[in-house]
Amino acid sequence: MNRRLVPGDRLVVATHNPGKLAEIAELLAPHGLVAVSAGSLGLPEPEESAEDFAGNARIKARSAAERAGLPALADDSGFCVAALNGKPGVHSARWAGDGRDFTSAMQRVHEAAGNAPDRRAWFVCALCLAWPDGETATFVGRVDGSFVWPPRGARGFGYDPVFAPIGGAETYGEMEPARKHATSHRARAMAQFAAWLAEAPPSA
Ligand code: ITT
To answer: Is 16 domain-assigned?
Structure first.
């Protein structure tokens, strides 16, 4: 099977999260790949039963690629707080409940962390590219910073208002999207994906 992706190729972006979809489509644009959303294809959301980000990204990417008959890129990501031993982590979406209420998810993190002096926090993003035959390639990015309370800024999505990356005071909720895209966990995983795109042999 030809595993090379070239400008003009269609790639399913296997996410149902509009915030992620917008960021991934923007990060893919310079590579000329045409992003087709999982929603537009009516793809179901598989159960994310793995214990780590890479495992869940593989489940989502394989499910979408198999059903769509196209290569698919999935993102499994999350917000991790040192004082909570890395939680909410792979359960970041679940902490927001079925209604995906991130105001209450951020409040829940704040209450769980209390006044713990350790304010370190980080985001992780695992991107998995899968082909319809089940073959995969996975790329993981991380960005370190701190847990900020109270939340600040209305940009971005999810936990962005309570995270400030190292080296600045602005939260991802306050920051220009272009600055987030330059350094984020998703951008770092995408940079590895881009390096892989540039290197991938015509057929593997
Ligand atoms: P899909 O599985 O359909 O992609 P999801 O929202 O359920 O969508 P995850 O299971 O990967 O995705 O959950 C990750 C959660 O972590 C997500 O809902 C966000 O709230 C949070 N998250 C991930 N990346 C983020 C970012 O860049 N900024 C803020 N929050 C982020």
So the answer is: yes
Q: How far is the CA of 97 from the centre of ligand 1 (A)?
A: 12
pLDDT at 2: 65
- Answer for the pair 9, 28: CB distance below 8 angstroms, yes or no: no
Name the catalytic one among 52, 76, 98, 144. 76
For ligand 1, say whether the CB of 165 is within 6 Å of any of its atoms.
Answer: no
What domain range is 81 assigned to? Answer: 10-199
Q: Determine whether 160 is an active site residue.
A: no
**Is residue 61 in some structural domain?**
yes
Compare 202 and 167 and report the one with higher pLDDT.
Answer: 167
Q: What is the mean pLDDT of residues 62-81?
A: 97
- CATH number for the domain spanning 85: value is 3.90.950.10
Q: Evaluate whether residue 172 is within a structural domain.
A: yes
pTM as predicted:
0.94
Mean pLDDT of the chain: 94
